[in-house]
Amino acid sequence: MIRLYDSHCHLDAPEFDADREAVLTRARAAGVARQLVPAVARPGWPKLKALCAAEPGLRPAYGLHPMNLGEHRPEYLQDLAAWLAAERPAAVGECGLDFFVEGLDPRAQREYFRRQLELAREFDLPVVLHARRAVDEVIAGLRRVGGLRGVVHSWSGSEEQARQLFGLGFCLGIGGPVTFERAQRLRRTVARMPLEHLLLETDAPDQPGATHRGRRNEPGFLPEVLRVVAQLRGVSEEAVAEATWANAERLFG
Questions:
Q1: Which N-terminal residues, if any, form the signal peptide (predicted)?
Q2: Could you report the per-residue pLDDT of 28-60, keeping only the tens digit for each?
């Protein structure tokens, strides 16, 4: 069976509370042997820690998501440093910038983002990045802090922006949106990008692919993403699965 690494899945989300074990069983049956589970807010870290400790194949990342800005407090950055030191997770995140959602203070977003990048560098951990209508500013932030590695998940930027990230050693997370035929710019990027910078993801419970539109997304749906990526690149699914597994293992340890 093909072995897959879901590099971005919010399995700790309340949408999975009623049937999480069944979701995990379906994911394993689909070949998803490992998942990175990124945090979004400080109150959820203990739940995420317990979930990843109890289930083989789940790797935690701890961070403060820009869309949860209203839940964050400055002292949570100190808490994050303590958690990183004590837990040594797979990554810092999910963090980043979101200039699409109205009402999220850009100045506060930038401060939380900058400090989380600094913590990732300090603890020598990769960062899991959210960049919505903010790719150029995210890239600028990475350059300012320096010494970083990671992934921009749910990639939706241009090929030129992608090349800049490759030059910084970053990967792109590709998920459900690539399965929609209308996503022509994204599909061109995926077809042409270096395979060593490609990661597969679901972002479950969000962003289901074309064949599951309108449903809750699950990690077990990752083979749909794999199939489309392989078709776009003109290679076998096995080749993409093997390469993206190695990329995720190299990045997250």
A1: none
A2: 999 999 999 999 999 999 999 999 999 999 999
Whole-angstrom distance, CA of residue 117 vs CA of residue 140: 12
What global pTM score does this model have? 0.98
Q: Would you call 2 helix, strand, or coil by DSSP? A: coil
What is the domain-level CATH number for residue 78? 3.20.20.140
In the chain, which stretches have pLDDT less than 70?
none
Whether 6 contacts 35, CB under 8 Å: yes
Q: Is 153 annotated as a binding residue?
A: yes
Q: Does the annotation flag 197 for ligand binding?
A: no
**CA 81 – CA 55 distance, rounded (Å):** 25
Is 72 marked within a binding site? no
CA distances from 57 to 33, 52, 89, 118, 195 (A): 6, 8, 13, 28, 23
Tell me the residue length of the chain.
253
The answer on whether 130 is annotated among ligand-binding residues is yes
The encoded tokens of residue 168 equal: 């910084």
**8 carries a ligand binding annotation:** yes
10 annotated as a binding-site residue: yes
Domain, as residue range, for 137: 4-252
Cβ atoms of 123 and 92 closer than 8 Å: yes
Q: Count up the domains in the chain and report the number.
A: 1
Residue type for position 168: L
* Count of helices and strands (H, E) across the chain: 9, 8
